[in-house]
Specification:
This protein is an alpha+beta fold. The protein has helices at residues 2-15, 100-105, 111-123, 148-151; strands at 20-36, 41-50, 56-64, 73-82, 88-90, 96-99, 124-127, 138-146, 160-172, 175-195.
């Protein structure tokens, strides 16, 4: 409990520092679904469409198979930075584990996850995923617009080429089963400094 409080406090300081903060421009490069579990999910689609140079639109749509109900889900997020040899290596903590059902039910919180979720709620044309567990049937996030407002959520990162990988698991019979894995590639470039007032 106490180490988690310290971690969240440090991240809050980095994100909400009262002094100077970087202003980012982000250039989306690619996004892809690397995997979805055909035993649990049907008719799954993950679409990515560039909207000019610095903006992109994302959509996720699928159906839990009949009889499948998700009431214990975990999201594991990992940030990778591309090195000079063009290989991606883990940047920062190995991974961020989100107790998804706890977060959606209000019993689990994390400052970065709170910020990302708030942005997604604002920026998506429509969605039905921000509700307490369980999940069953149709799930979707439609027309999530990612632009400079999204990139400034992660203004504690340095410039560079990054890959953000997200894996969604469900725990069933004391075993984790991978549901979905996605990867998003972005070129982050600080373009200036502003002083918060």
């Amino acid at each position: 409990m106490f180490p988690k409080l310290i971690q969240n406090s440090l991240l809050f300081f980095l994100l909400c520092d009262a002094g100077e903060s970087k202003i980012f421009e982000g250039i989306p490069k690619q996004a892809e679904c690397k995997y979805y579990n055909p035993d649990l999910i049907a008719n799954f689609t993950f679409t990515y469409k560039p909207l000019g140079w610095k903006k992109a639109k994302y959509s996720i749509d699928g159906y839990m198979k009949e009889g499948v109900e998700i009431d214990n889900a975990v999201i594991r997020g990992t940030t990778y930075r591309r090195e000079s040899n063009m290989e991606y290596r883990v940047f920062g903590p190995k991974e961020l584990t989100v107790e998804a059902c706890g977060f959606l039910g209000g019993s689990w919180t994390h400052v970065v996850v709170d910020l990302v979720a708030a942005y997604m709620k604002r920026a998506a044309k429509s969605n039905n995923v921000f509700h307490p567990c369980p999940f069953s049937g149709h799930f979707y996030i439609h027309d999530l617009i990612v632009d400079e407002n999204a990139y400034n959520v992660v203004n504690f990162l340095p410039s560079g080429f990054f890959m953000f990988k997200a894996r969604v698991f469900t725990r069933r019979n004391n075993t984790e089963h991978l549901l979905i894995e996605t990867a998003t590639y972005v070129d982050l470039r600080p373009v200036g400094i502003h002083t918060k007032r």
